[in-house]
Amino acid sequence: MPGTVVPGPAAGSSTERQVRRLPAFSGAKFIHTAAENIPLITKKGRAYTWLFDLRRVFMQRQALEQIAHAFWERNAARAPFQLGGLETAAIPLLTALLLTAPKQRGAVNGFIIRKDRKTTGLGNAIEGAVLDLPIVLVEDSLNSGNSAEKARALVSMAGHPLDEVFVVVDFLSKAGMQWRKTHGIAVQSLFTLKDFDLPPDHSTPHPTQGYRKLWRTATPGGFAYHVVPKSAPLLVGNTLLHSCDAAKMQAFSAETGGLVWEYQVTGAAYTRKGIWSCPAYHDGRLYFGA
What we know:
Keywords: Pyrimidine biosynthesis. The chain is α/β, with parallel strands linked by helices.
């Protein structure tokens, strides 16, 4: 029937006991299927056969209380840690966890990770302070790991490692398993797809490659508040060519990161726009727009 939840776990199982402890899940219509005749659109414009909508669950007080209780039942005795969440789905859950933290733990630090850095005001990518404590990222679900990777990369840029992830539903997909193995991140979950009689994703994840930082450089004077596609670097021999927000075309040694030469585009410097175009090289000449 349209709007019904797919069958739950077998009676007497540990998951069935978990569902009984989280009764808000047994009646919530948070799984949509193609039988409902509603659009379930993938990123490629195709149609999902089923879809979780945990945001609907996170708008219910009872559900949030039950999830928070289950989280702190597992983690109340742990050494101090902090909580982070990627907007938007995780914000209600993050708030609930901060409000229900056991009093004996004292205040628990939390922060929100923006999907896109704010372009006005302070221009933050992370709202709130990130302390020198282990980080537990809270999410509604973990599938491919793309959202969790965005969060991990941003906290890493802020100088902090991501230690653990807590999710309501872990898809246990091959891509998600590869992501946690690559970065050595533990995952806690309340449910998996098996608990809802849904098949796991057996598709082969895209190949990945590990990298190490060889060098890093920064050019002062740019206006960083235009969040748009910008210049990509171009490697010519042993020289890395790159344009920047400071309206400079720069050439760096690919081995050391040392500045070989730079060219200031005077007109673009006064527009606060910099150079967004990608350079092109042909027959000894370098071409770029400004």
